[in-house]
Each structure stands twice: as structure tokens, then as C-alpha cells.
Design a protein that fits this description.
The chain is of the alpha+beta class. The chain has helices spanning about 25-30, 80-85, 90, 105-115, 130-135, 140-155, 165, 175-180, 185-190, 195-205, 205-210, 215-225, 230-240, 255-265, 270-280, 285-295, and strands at about 15-20, 45, 50-55, 60-70, 70-80, 160, 170. The strands form 2 sheets. The protein has a 5-stranded antiparallel beta sheet. A two-stranded antiparallel ribbon has the order 6-7.
Amino acid sequence: MPAARPAPAAPAAGRVRTYVPDGPLDLGLVLGPLRRGPADPTFRAMPDGSVWRASLTPAGPGTLRVSAHGGAVRGEAWGPGAEWLLDRLPEMVGAADDPSAFVPRHRLLAHARHRRPGLRLTRTGLVLESLIPSVLEQKVTTDEAYRAWRLLVRKFGEPAPGPAAGGRLWVMPAPRTWALIPSWEWHRAGVDNKRASTILRAVRVAARLEEATGMEPREARARLEVVPGIGPWTSAEAVQRSHGAADEVTTGDLHLPGIVGWALAGDRHADDALMLRLLEPYAGQRHRAARLILLSGVVPARRAPRMPVGDIRGL
């Protein structure tokens, strides 16, 4: 009779921190912008409402599970970066954000805020983990960018420490690893030379870019934009996440001006200049205003065909 197999060992408990926010909090809304597509290998939203994230922190790789129950947020973390992640748990779930600073001056925005009282802006304190996927999203469809991020992280990253949502989480590559990715691997992931070169230039000055977390958002964006290939669209997308920047609205986007223009003025053909004029009454909170507009679901009906999906692997 074969010997019975030993029961699998229970996963080691992680370090724990509990934080009580000073108002309503919706984890999905707060942490959702950190997710790069439904199959993001660094992010998992679980059926029980918890969120798992794997990050490369200054202290090393770390895994963080965040859950909310009874008005309290519980963080459990594993790996060398566990303490770093737990130290920043409150800011990650919006403690540095001040939703009361937003005063809606349009019925749509007032309604959107009323329906989403748990919206807060996350602040991760990490630049590269927001910057690199934002570069991958330049001038391509989101599906193409999400695929590239997924393939590159799984191939060149490392498994996240701890139980990591069933072993499906990965920590993104370190700067040196990004720098050593062969050209053909970028090609296989569908990343053209322009975007790959921008990422390579960024990781060569990774330490200087991460220092930007101690700057005001506008100064941080200026530092990021010193790197050739990083412009206003990319820098805004990065600092919105790394800094919780309530005023850094994204310009240069294919769809956002038309959505804002339609919601606030009935103009589906609005450009960046008109969008910024419409958002002027929300100075200091323009990104939040744009986020609430997107959450409202009020968008102009599509008339033009979707942006075609390119595939450089066939070139």
C-alpha cells in the first residue's frame, strides 16, 4: 500500500499592518489604475475583494495583499520588500489624497462623485513600475501594450515572494535586467525599437528617476521628460500613479479630450486646448475631474473605426 503523501505545508504568514481610513474607500477604484490589463502578472483582483500586488521596491521584491473589512484596511506582505510596502500602505490606498478638495461645478461630476464615494487616488512611491508600462502604451492599442507587459514581465521578471495568489504573481524585472533584454525579445513581444529604446534609456538612469518620488508632481514630470522618448502623455500617466497627482491631467491622448469635451460641453471633437479650458474650474483637481468623467460612463458614440492593431513581429 503506497505511503500517504504529506499534506502541503501552509504558506508562511506574512507581516501584517492594519490601517483605518478617514472615509469611505473602494479598493477596486483606488488600486484599479495600477492594473495593466486583465492578465497583468503583477496584479490580481480576487473574488473575495482583496487585491494582490507584486512590486520591486528599493528594499527588494515584495508581495502585498490588501483587503478591506469593517471600515479597516488590512495589508499582509511577504519578501524583502514587505516592510517597505506596509510602511506605504496608507498612501497606496489614498491616505495622502484629499477628496474633499474637489468641488464639482457640473451636474455630471457631482453625480459621479456621489456614486463613487470610495474613490481615492493611489500613491505608490515607485516611478519605474508605472513608467515602463506607460511607455509600452505609447501609440498602440491597450491590448498590444498589455500583451507586451505580460510577456516581458513573465519572461524576465521573477516569481513574487510568499503565497502570491496561487503562484501567479510576478515581480517586474530590475533595471539591469531590462537593460539586458535582447532586441529580438522586444520584437517578439511586439515592442518597436522606439519604445524599447525609450525604456532602455530610462532604466540606465533608474535611480535618478526614482528620486522624483520626493518631488512635487510637476517637477517629477520635468525630470522624467529629460529622457528622450518620454513626453507629457507618458509623464502624466506615470506620476498619476507614483505620486497620486490630483492635478496632472493627461494630454496627447487619442480619446480623452473628446470624452471630456462631450461630457462637459457636448463637443466630441474637443482637442487638448479645449479640454484644458473646460477643466480650468478644477485647477488642482483636474486629473480627479477627468477620472470621474471616465467613471461616469458618459462618452460619445463611436463613429470612427478602432485604432488598428499592429504586429511588428511579422516585419
